[in-house]
Amino acid sequence: MKELTSYEGALCANCQAPLQGEYCHHCGQSVHSVLRPVHGLFEEFFETFLHIDGRILHTLPALFLKPGFLTLEYFSGRRVRYIAPFRLMFVLCLLSFFVLHIATDVIAQRIEQRQQRNAVVMDQDVDFSQAYTAQEVRRQLTAQLEALEAARAVGNTAVVAQIDQAEQKLRQQANTRLAELGAPAHASTAAPSAGDNGDGTSKPVHISWLPEFANQRLADFAQHIRNNAKALRGHTLAERREAWEHVAAGIYGALPGTMLVLVPVFALLLKLFYLFKRRLYMEHLIVSLHSHAFLFASLLLIVIAGMLNTWLKPVAGWAGYAAGLLQGALIVWVPAYLLVMQKRVYRQGWVMTCVKYWCIGWCYVWLLLFALIVAVTLGLAH
């Protein structure tokens, strides 16, 4: 048990105010000196760590399992036991996107493995010289194109680009043999993409009412997007991997900032839909912070459950199945939690709560989609 210490007659070393405890009530300075033995520093570190750990244990279970509880506690003035809303939301945001980045890297590696398996088929040369009629050439070409289409159906953008190259190579080989046989060739020429001058550069951006430096900035922005998009369709897996890491770093670097912008915007939506509740904007902002903290915590758990599902299925099917069920339950819990939280905080009937919940959710989905598009665009322009 901590001993009671009397500070009667003691003065603050900073402002000379009479002390009534370990901290000055006037300037907030601690009575303890920073000049202390090393073991005292370790004691202070562990005390601070255990204090923060205790706040985590009080905050995270309540955040995830009790809709609206933390917000109502904060409104009631009981705040010391819990982590501050902004800090809680910010830390969970960084953690969730960090784990999501790892998950996307794992998915990218699996796509690369699939590309390597498909490349064995796509890089094989077909010997059309053994076909002595135009019909045989066309029949072999059709069979190869059907195999490429099957790979195209399960591929992503990079795989499709590689399949297009393989298809063009097959058509060229078939056309060469058809020319030797005196049959008409099947020409396939790709047209320049929109915004392309034909030399690999984009058309200059010019908006009359913008200054020249702004137009130049937009032109560089568009050129960076084009260069990164072209790099993602590189000829080798190593080139595409390097391009994806570059773009992904830009996307995940921009995502936290764009998501933070949504927090005050969501609070503004709550203010508009609950205008007659006469609540301060700061109250809606606290609701928004706790809502986004829950969303990021849910995203973190959903991604972890998805990764466990993928890793455990080959070794322990029942464990992978359980992780999949947990992931599905978490996805269902997210909208249910937010609905119950809105009902408990704003204390309206279920009908009005459901109507406002649907309207706010519809607006927020479009805002979220816009934020994701902005983050991806900034990532491509990185």
Features:
single chain; 382 residues; mainly alpha; 3 domains; 10 helices; 70% helix; 0% strand; elongated
Task: Note poorly predicted spans.
Answer: 189-194
Approximately how much beta-strand content do the residues carry?
Answer: under 5%
Based on CA atoms alone, the radius of gyration comes out at 31 Å
Q: Into which percent range does the helicity of residues fall?
A: 55-70%
**Cα distance spanning the termini:** 57 Å
For the report, how would you describe the main beta sheet?
none
Sheet/helix structural class? mainly alpha
Order of helices and strands: HHHHHHHHHH
* CA-based shape: elongated
State mean pLDDT (0 to 100 scale): 78
Q: With helices defined by DSSP (H or I, 4 residues minimum), what is the helix count?
A: 10
State the total count of DSSP E strands: 0
Our count of domains comes out at 3
Give a written overview of the molecule.
- Helix 3 runs parallel beside helix 5 and helix 3 runs parallel beside helix 8.
- The protein starts with 37 loop residues before the first helix and ends with a helix.
- With 382 residues, it is mainly α.
- It has 3 domains: 48 residues, no CATH class; 202 residues, no CATH class; 48 residues.
- It is elongated and about 110 Å long.
- The chain has 10 helices and no strands.
- Helices cover 70% and strands 0% of the residues.
